[in-house]
Write a structure and sequence with these properties.
Among the domains are: about 125-240, no CATH class; about 275-395, DENN domain, C-terminal lobe (Rossmann fold, 3-Layer(aba) Sandwich). Helices cover about 35% and strands about 15% of the residues. It is built from 16 helices and 17 strands. The chain has helices at about 25-35, 95-100, 110, 150-155, 215-225, 230-240, 260-265, 280-290, 290-300, 315-325, 350-355, 400-425, 430-450, 460-465, 475-480, 490-495, and strands at about 55-60, 60-65, 115, 125-130, 135-140, 165-170, 175-185, 195-205, 240-245, 250-255, 305-310, 345, 360-365, 380, 385, 455, 490. The strands form 5 sheets. It has a 5-stranded antiparallel sheet with strand order 5-4-8-7-6. About 45% of the residues are buried.
Length: about 500
Amino acid sequence: MVERSDRAPLLDWEEVPSAEKPGGAAPAAAHAKDRLSSPSNTRASSGCSAPGFGWSSGPGGPTPSRSVSSSDGCSTPPMTSSNPAGTDEGLRPDKEEHLSDSGPREVPLEDRMVKWEEKDQIVSVFVVTFNTRSGNMLEWCLPKDMDLEGVEFKAIASGSHRVTTDFIYFRKGSYFGLACFANMAVESTVERGARMKSVGILSPSYTLLYRYMSFLEHQVRLQLQSPGHYSPLEAFYEDKRALLPPSGDGVVTAGPANAWGAAINHSMHPEMKITHPAGCMSQFIRFFGEQIMVLWKLALLRRRILIFSPPPVGVVCYRVYCCCCLANISIPGVSVAVPEFRPFFYVNVADISALENELSYVACTTEKIFEEKKDLYDVYVDNQNVKTCRDGLKPLLRLSTADREKYRKLTEQRRSESNSNRLTCFPTVNFPRFFLEQNNRIFQTLSEVAGSPDPTLTQESVRAMGLDPHGDRLFLLHLLEIYGYDTLLVSEQLCCS
């Protein structure tokens, strides 16, 4: 039986290739109106949404938009409004470009070169197909010389034949990818009654991939209906491709330069700068319940966390990101001595050699065989079941008194947020901030104790961190070791408790 994925497009936006953009403002407005009234945009409507974050990015910064609750409780990402009257024409990308062309001012090079995390940059676009004889195959790509070995197994997740649509975030070497998958029934004995394809992109950063979700969904439907029609993808790549500097200094420029694109990201909340899976944070907490506090500790300890789930895998990729949000720290210098906690997103057996060399990661998979590869992970999450084979971590799976108190406050906050969102339709970003403030509280206290004349952790200082002096003792000892607080002494009250 084929299941249908429960997600809606993150942004109901269709990219207009630069070669096809009308030259005047009036035609551009008419074209935008056509796009907004197209069938693909009829899903967006006015009214308040289910609880969750919904943001539509524009040059003036984030604005609230509709989000839809999916079957597992995770709100799907936002869609832009289909009401042209609600759009500020002065903030439209095509309008902005038209106005900038008519003015004499030229944007300085230093303003156009921003850090790669904050700039449109597509290094590759590709189409993957399932062949009944050869399996997953790379069908087409740009640029032609791009190393895409293995991407065919990332863009179509294992078990995807059981769903009709899905989306997948993944890592390919030093790049991050997003692919949209679709499965269409066909009357063909050669294709065994089903045609499956995926259209994806690669970027040096995952922070802006969400912008192209709807475009990729539209393109994969087009590839299913009209195989071999690559001209929209070619135009998209020419418009969005990144120009990577040979020096490798972490800075890229995207051609053509769009000043409004950088302005969007500078004005967005840090918690919302990724793909907006932070919008699923409330449902992520509800899904795991009290176990969220166990995941929080393990993430803060930079453990290798692997999440198993059958397809669709898109919502599980969101859980990967939400898990990363649990370990955010904004105090300068604290995370210098610990491994970087970056998401791997979807992984398969082809990633085993890469995972063997990782000291810290969070990833998801649809392949049950990973459970047997105990040397690849420290923590294995199957549905809501969090488990570990590491004896030193097993005590951390038990909740302390402080954990339950923090979860109670978190639950109250989630309930308050839900009521507020229903009334105002204006979501907030307090859930990632809840854990950020908790983490900052811990390390601020540790730094103060370390700098005091008597660098000894007492029950009072542990309580000041929001931890349980008894139940969180082992967690605290792990924390001191990993983050390099080896000069701190631990009170005998904690050792003997």
